[in-house]
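call fold(seq) -> C-alpha cells
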Amino acid sequence: MNQYIVYTPEGYTIAPNEHVEVMNCQMLGTTLGRNAIEAKSNILKDNPWILEAGFHPSKFIIRQLLTNRKHT
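ret:
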C-alpha cells in the first residue's frame, strides 16, 4: 500500500489578522491505497466530514508520499 496526501484548492484560511483572507490549499488528510483512485475512495470512507463540509472530490489533488515505512 502507498501513502497519499489529499488536498484541495477549495476554501480559504483566515490569517492571524482576521481581516485578511488567505487563498491557499486545504489539506484534507493522508490515507493509504494501491493508487490515487483507491486513496480518494479511502479518504472519503474514513472521513465523512469532508463531503459534509462541502468539499468536491473532483477538485481533490492526490499525491503519493515517499516514505521509508512499508505499509501492509
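The longest strand covers residues 26-33.
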